[in-house]
Amino acid sequence: MSRSPRPRLAVLISGNGTNLQALMDAIQEGRLPATISVVISNRKAAYGLERARRADIPTEYFPLKPYRDAGRSRREYDADLARLAARYRPDWVVLAGWMHILSRAFLDRFPNRVINLHPALPGQFPGAHAIPDALEAYRQGKIRHTGVMVHLVPDEQVDAGPVLAAREVPIYPEDTLESLTERIHSVEHRLLVETLARLAQEEPSPCDSA
Known about the structure:
Blueprint: E1 8-13, H1 18-28, E2 35-41, H2 47-54, E3 59-61, H3 65-69, H4 74-86, E4 92-95, H5 104-107, E5 114-118, H6 130-139, E6 145-152, E7 163-170, H7 177-201
Parallel strand pairs: 1-2, 1-4, 2-3, 4-5
Antiparallel strand pairs: 5-6, 6-7
């Protein structure tokens, strides 16, 4: 995988794309020295695709359903997804609200180059329900705060890779799921940009050719 002076990002999304928007804004404002080479979604209606199109960023819609309908395996889907992403020569693959667990068929194509954003602190609340799980744990007196982390995805474990950055997010007695979600998303946007900006400035480590 070749490196460029401004790292190339392949951003994988499944929904609204607010973290994608944070990346695009940071690039436009000069806070993130990178280029988004492609935005890929597994959902056709994901609004993040429209955000990318408006910014003249290439987009790809790559659904899982045709593979399931044809009796093809998840590994086949992930291998084809990896080939699709590799066409855009990314230095980093960023999972910004991507709602599939990637298998080694994808991850081995981009060793130590897949980054995930998760709305919980390391070791806490893995999976898709991290925010409501944290709020319930707070109400039961088990935790006093939650957080956000950015981590590498080296294997198929869920939200458990080497941590690149983490930040605590307070929970207040009056919080609703909506207010806590909004506060976490605000931290997510900042932490993802800060982490990628730091990585963009560091010396690149050797990586296999894609």
